[in-house]
Specification:
alpha+beta; PH-domain like; about 180 residues
């Protein structure tokens, strides 16, 4: 039986004490201690697909994951163990999370019938057909601008606002890095 690491999403065996991929403890108490010991690691965003960009070692369709730390943004192929690129925050000129979020598509069936029983029956069938035929997808686009390139990536797991809120520390780190570049201490 397996469980998933809450930090990186990797599959872990039940008997493991920590994730083999990122080293995060799997026990909730130990994980909290680990998080407090490593304030530089915030979040990973898995299940992304490159839509396009330039100046980066990725091509359209590559599955990637993003890692956000206090010092940099790391982007790696989804099957790789190490970051293919690590971009310090002072080199990131823009970061945006956009997209329509949840999008529902497909036909809507209506129905009526003769008499109360017929109307209820046909409406129930129409409701069932609508539920079977309609699909809801999430569309989120991550856009990273750098001095020497840019990346557009699609994520279908998390809605834009939810992802933006969870990446709040990254946006703060970006602002702080640019303030320090403008006004060195």
């Amino acid at each position: 039986m397996e469980r998933r690491c809450l930090a990186c999403g990797a599959a872990c065996r039940r008997e493991q004490m920590s994730c083999e991929l990122c080293g995060t403890p799997l026990d909730p108490v130990e994980r909290e201690r680990f998080r407090l010991d490593r304030p530089d690691w915030w979040r990973t965003v898995d299940s992304c697909v490159i839509l396009g960009g330039s100046g980066v070692p990725f091509v359209q369709g590559d599955p990637v994951r993003f890692g956000f730390t206090a010092q940099a943004l790391a982007v790696s192929h989804a099957d790789g163990q190490t970051a293919d690129i690590s971009i310090p925050w002072w080199d990131v000129t823009g970061l945006s999370i956009e997209g329509p979020g949840k999008v529902t598509s497909g036909p809507v069936f209506f129905g009526g019938g003769f008499g109360v029983r017929g109307a209820i029956t046909v409406m129930a069938i129409a409701t069932l057909l609508t539920a079977l035929a309609r699909r809801t997808n999430i569309t989120t686009v991550i856009h990273v601008e750098m001095r020497s390139g840019e990346i557009y990536a699609y994520n279908g797991d998390t809605e834009p606002l939810t992802l933006r809120i969870s990446l709040s520390p990254a946006f703060v780190a970006l602002r702080v890095a640019h303030d320090e570049v403008r006004e060195p201490r």
